[in-house]
Amino acid sequence: MTVIRLARRPDVWTVLKWVVAIAVAVIAIFPLWWMVNVVFSLPGEPVSINPRLWPTSVAAGIDKIAMIFAETEYFRAYVVSLIYSILTIFGVLAVSSLAAFEFSLFDFPGKKITIAIVMLSLMVPTAVTIIPTYLLTSELGWLNTMQGLVVPGIASAFGLFMLMQFMRAIPRDMIEAARLDGAGHFEIYWHIALPLSRNAMVTLAILTFMRTWGNYMWPLIVGTRPEMYTVGQVVGLFNAPLSHQTVDVVMTANLLAAVPPLLFFLIFQRKIVEGIAMSGTKG
Amino acid sequence: MSFLEISSATKSYGRHKVLEDVNLTIERGEFVVFVGPSGCGKSTLLRMITGLETITSGTISIEGAVMNDVDPAKRGTAMVFQSYALYPHMTVFENISFGLRMARKPKEYIASQVAQGAGILQLEKLLERRPGQLSGGQKQRVAIGRAIVRDPRVFLFDEPLSNLDAELRVQMRAELMDLHRRLGTTMIYVTHDQVEAMTLADKMVVMNGGRVQQAGRPLTLYDDPDNRFVAGFVGSPKMNFLPARVVGSDMGRILLEGIGGSARLSLPFAGELAVGTSVEIGLRPEHVSLRPLLPTESSEALVGEGKVAYVEDLGAESHVHLTLTDGTAVCLRAARGEASPGTTVRFFASPERALLFDAGGLRLRNRSARTK
């Protein structure tokens, strides 16, 4: 009996671990909660002398959302962001998986050095490459176009790295069996490598979505015309010092921008964790 | 012209030679087993036949057509891998039919081929399952099924049974023999297990160090090996090798001394062997006995003495391991309870059963007294 009681009593470390975990969770969640709180309250209420930590008026929130959709180009920005994200996802998946297929399952001259160069690019900060990329995009006449937004983001060194780790775990025997079965190079990719990497592809798609949806800098410099504004830029306009918007309206714009990635994460969080864990070990 | 001919085939990776001067002929319908220790090049040779490895020099031809540059899928070979290499995301039906689908065969043809293959291998009830839901033996059958539906000229098996447990291995071995009998197709099988090779093969090819050591019927290799490696590799327990020295030759016989320390033996031998040459006598464990031989069996038996190191009792028989005075180990088959560890015993062997090897391990054949 004593043994059972001892085992049930949490030790100091367990308690500490929980305290730290809860503290981190509160710090992470509080800003989001505050945003919701500000949006779904009467203007000024959450920041009054006697602040509230919970929403007081759903109707007020809905009014603000309706107002933003009615009076700004927020909906158009949503569509632009969505197309931008989806095209980037498909582009990244196609390019990364094709490249990873070659790099991880076949040998060819110059393979090592090519991988090294691609991996090196992971370490170069975006700020360094953004001007050359901009100049190139501009040369191509792609400013203020969808391809200008999408194409530079398609070559993802991270995606290549992740899928490569994953595809390396595909047994060579399986590829050879497919070859003997008469499958051509592309058929092996399409029928064997791609389906076997499904989990990693899903993870990469989600991570790409999060990154693209939240990308502020690139759309800002490539899409300068209002009709090419993404959600990120529109939120930026609301946040600008001279926008003369009240806090609750700015928060509403922020909340609308945060909803898609939040939903995505809530739906796919298990897949994301699984995929990242798998890309490090084996398939 | 043989069905499959390998002539002067070599394989090297850079400077490292994996296979050297392999010459081999295989007849239609033969069950050929490549056997040898790990790294001897047997799997590489198999992969060269199927086209998964290039041939550095020499040729491999099937039915007279040189295959060196023919695409693996077009050689008419089908391979069963050690790891089964089933596609985990496809059902058994999809796995088996994959090759036919890649060849864009009509749906009815695919269905009938798969049904036929599944019938042969009793896979009918498993067609909708995925490999993850199958046992080892079932996976193996699916892998064979995938090969069968392509109707190949040659089946290639790369250690297909090594992932199975002992009981299942024996069962699958019988199934493979039965399959070979029913299909009558040429089969080439790679294994490192000489028992598997002995039981399956019409022709056994013993390989070592990238070279074919000997090829022939299993019992021919057992009784009449070309060299010390083949003699030692084929048979379990292994052949005993006793060092000896030639001290004289006379009238078609040679006299050996210093066998296992002090024993002497006179052997019928027609050939040149200088006095003082070091040789080795090879004796199979079943040809060494703890009982004196009958006078009719041998007039001048090899008689030696050794200490029983340990005894392996297998029920029907025992393997007695002796250590001779010069440290040579000898294993012999004996009846249960014939020897006990720690005791010193005498052993007997007939000179007619002894094989001679020179210092380089090559067999010294006695042309006059032995028939092949």
TrEMBL record, chain A:
<feature type="transmembrane region" description="Helical">
    <location>
        <begin position="249"/>
        <end position="268"/>
    </location>
</feature>
<keyword id="KW-0472">Membrane</keyword>
<feature type="transmembrane region" description="Helical">
    <location>
        <begin position="188"/>
        <end position="210"/>
    </location>
</feature>
<comment type="similarity">
    <text>Belongs to the binding-protein-dependent transport system permease family.</text>
</comment>
<keyword id="KW-0812">Transmembrane</keyword>
<feature type="transmembrane region" description="Helical">
    <location>
        <begin position="77"/>
        <end position="101"/>
    </location>
</feature>
<feature type="transmembrane region" description="Helical">
    <location>
        <begin position="149"/>
        <end position="167"/>
    </location>
</feature>
<dbReference type="GO" id="GO:0055085">
    <property type="term" value="P:transmembrane transport"/>
</dbReference>
<keyword id="KW-1133">Transmembrane helix</keyword>
<dbReference type="InterPro" id="IPR000515">
    <property type="entry name" value="MetI-like"/>
</dbReference>
<dbReference type="Pfam" id="PF00528">
    <property type="entry name" value="BPD_transp_1"/>
</dbReference>
<dbReference type="GO" id="GO:0005886">
    <property type="term" value="C:plasma membrane"/>
</dbReference>
<feature type="transmembrane region" description="Helical">
    <location>
        <begin position="113"/>
        <end position="137"/>
    </location>
</feature>
<feature type="domain" description="ABC transmembrane type-1">
    <location>
        <begin position="78"/>
        <end position="268"/>
    </location>
</feature>
<protein>
    <submittedName>
        <fullName>Carbohydrate ABC transporter membrane protein 2, CUT1 family</fullName>
    </submittedName>
</protein>
<keyword id="KW-1003">Cell membrane</keyword>
<feature type="transmembrane region" description="Helical">
    <location>
        <begin position="12"/>
        <end position="36"/>
    </location>
</feature>
<dbReference type="InterPro" id="IPR035906">
    <property type="entry name" value="MetI-like_sf"/>
</dbReference>
<keyword id="KW-0813">Transport</keyword>
TrEMBL record, chain B:
<comment type="similarity">
    <text>Belongs to the ABC transporter superfamily.</text>
</comment>
<dbReference type="InterPro" id="IPR012340">
    <property type="entry name" value="NA-bd_OB-fold"/>
</dbReference>
<dbReference type="Pfam" id="PF00005">
    <property type="entry name" value="ABC_tran"/>
</dbReference>
<dbReference type="GO" id="GO:0005524">
    <property type="term" value="F:ATP binding"/>
</dbReference>
<keyword id="KW-0067">ATP-binding</keyword>
<keyword id="KW-0547">Nucleotide-binding</keyword>
<dbReference type="GO" id="GO:1990060">
    <property type="term" value="C:maltose transport complex"/>
</dbReference>
<dbReference type="InterPro" id="IPR008995">
    <property type="entry name" value="Mo/tungstate-bd_C_term_dom"/>
</dbReference>
<dbReference type="GO" id="GO:0055052">
    <property type="term" value="C:ATP-binding cassette (ABC) transporter complex, substrate-binding subunit-containing"/>
</dbReference>
<keyword id="KW-0997">Cell inner membrane</keyword>
<keyword id="KW-0472">Membrane</keyword>
<dbReference type="InterPro" id="IPR003439">
    <property type="entry name" value="ABC_transporter-like_ATP-bd"/>
</dbReference>
<dbReference type="Pfam" id="PF17912">
    <property type="entry name" value="OB_MalK"/>
</dbReference>
<keyword id="KW-1003">Cell membrane</keyword>
<feature type="domain" description="ABC transporter">
    <location>
        <begin position="4"/>
        <end position="234"/>
    </location>
</feature>
<dbReference type="GO" id="GO:0015423">
    <property type="term" value="F:ABC-type maltose transporter activity"/>
</dbReference>
<dbReference type="InterPro" id="IPR047641">
    <property type="entry name" value="ABC_transpr_MalK/UgpC-like"/>
</dbReference>
<dbReference type="InterPro" id="IPR003593">
    <property type="entry name" value="AAA+_ATPase"/>
</dbReference>
<dbReference type="GO" id="GO:0016887">
    <property type="term" value="F:ATP hydrolysis activity"/>
</dbReference>
<keyword id="KW-0813">Transport</keyword>
<dbReference type="InterPro" id="IPR017871">
    <property type="entry name" value="ABC_transporter-like_CS"/>
</dbReference>
<protein>
    <submittedName>
        <fullName>Carbohydrate ABC transporter ATP-binding protein, CUT1 family</fullName>
    </submittedName>
</protein>
